[in-house]
Design brief:
The complex is a heterodimer of chains A (about 110) and B (about 110).
Chain A (H helix, E strand, L loop, with lengths): L3 E4 L2 E5 L4 E7 L7 E6 L6 E6 L5 E4 L2 E6 L4 E6 L8 E11 L2 E6 L3 E6 L1
Parallel strand pairs in A: 2-11
Antiparallel strand pairs in A: 1-3, 3-8, 4-5, 4-9, 6-7, 7-8, 9-10, 9-11
Chain B lengths: L4 E3 L2 E4 L5 E6 L6 E7 L6 E7 L2 E5 L7 E4 L6 E5 L8 E8 L7 E2 L3 E5 L1
Parallel strand pairs in B: 2-11
Antiparallel strand pairs in B: 1-3, 3-8, 4-5, 4-9, 5-6, 7-8, 9-10, 9-11
Classes of the chains: A mainly beta (about 110), B mainly beta (about 110).
C-alpha cells in the first residue's frame, strides 16, 4: 500500500514531442504528489507538485494530470527539449505527524533526441 | 550558494570500516530528511528530524546506522561496520514547515569494497 508504481522505465522522444510519464498509487491517505527531475550526479530537484483536490496543474511546459478515482497521476512535458533528458521520479507523500515522508517511484529515464 | 550541501560527495571505503556523512540544510529550514538511493531506483526514506529531534526512523535503518542533528542545524549520518550492500547514494533534503517542499542536496555516493 506504500508503493508508487511508475511507468515507463525509459522513454525516447523526439525534440518538440510530448513526453508522458505515468504513476499509480494504492494508499488513499497520500495527499501530496510531487515530480522530481534528476540529472546524473545530482540530487533530485522539484519540478512540479499537485494536491488531490485539483485535477490538473500546469507550470510552463510541464503539466500534472491527477485522477483521484483511478489513483493515478501523470506528468506531461510539452515541446520536449534535449535539455529535458534526465530521470524523472514521481512521489507521493504521507502526512505523518505533520511532515511529508516521500515515497518515490522507480524513475523514468527520458532521452530527448534532437 | 544557499542550497543543501553534503560532504563528502564521494566516499570509497573497505568493508567493516565506519563512515560519516554530513548534511548542511538551507539555513531557515527546520525539517531535515535522509534518503538512500540505489542504482536505477528512486530514493527511499531513512529518517526525519524536526529541529534536533529525530521523529522517525525507517526499518531500512539498521542498528549500524545512526543519525544526529545537534542544535537543529547540520546533520550527520554514520554507518558502522560497512557492508557491500550499503553502497548507494545518500541524499539529504530539508524543508520549512509550510510549505513542506523538500529541497535535496547533491548526495554522497558511498562505495564499499
Amino acid at each position: 500500500q506504500q508503493q508508487v508504481k511508475q511507468s515507463p522505465q525509459s522513454l525516447i522522444v523526439q525534440k518538440g514531442g510530448i513526453s508522458i510519464i505515468n504513476c499509480a498509487y494504492e494508499n488513499t491517505a497520500f495527499d501530496y504528489f510531487p515530480w522530481y527531475q534528476q540529472f546524473p550526479g545530482k540530487g533530485p530537484a522539484l519540478l512540479i507538485a499537485i494536491r488531490p483536490d485539483v485535477s490538473e496543474k500546469k507550470e510552463g511546459r510541464f503539466t500534472i494530470s491527477f485522477n483521484k478515482s483511478a489513483k493515478q497521476f501523470s506528468l506531461h512535458i510539452m515541446d520536449s527539449q534535449p535539455g529535458d533528458s534526465a530521470t524523472y521520479f514521481c512521489a507521493a507523500s504521507l502526512q505523518a505527524g505533520g511532515y511529508n515522508k516521500l515515497i518515490f517511484g522507480a524513475g523514468t529515464r527520458l532521452a530527448v533526441h534532437p | 550558494d544557499t542550497g543543501v550541501s553534503q560532504d563528502p560527495r564521494h566516499k570509497i571505503t573497505k568493508r567493516g570500516q565506519n563512515v560519516t556523512f554530513r548534511c548542511d540544510p538551507i539555513s531557515e529550514h527546520n525539517r531535515l530528511y535522509w534518503y538512500r538511493q540505489t542504482l536505477g531506483q528512486g530514493p527511499e526514506f531513512l529518517t526525519y528530524f524536526q529541529n534536533e529531534a529525530q521523529l522517525e526512523k525507517s526499518r531500512l535503518l539498521s542498528d549500524r546506522f545512526s543519525a544526529e542533528r545537534p542544535k537543529g542545524s547540520f546533520s550527520t549520518l554514520e554507518i558502522q561496520r560497512t557492508e557491500q550492500g550499503d553502497s548507494a547514494m545518500y541524499l539529504c533534503a530539508s524543508s520549512f514547515a509550510s510549505p513542506d517542499t523538500q529541497y535535496f542536496g547533491p548526495g554522497t555516493r558511498l562505495t564499499v569494497l
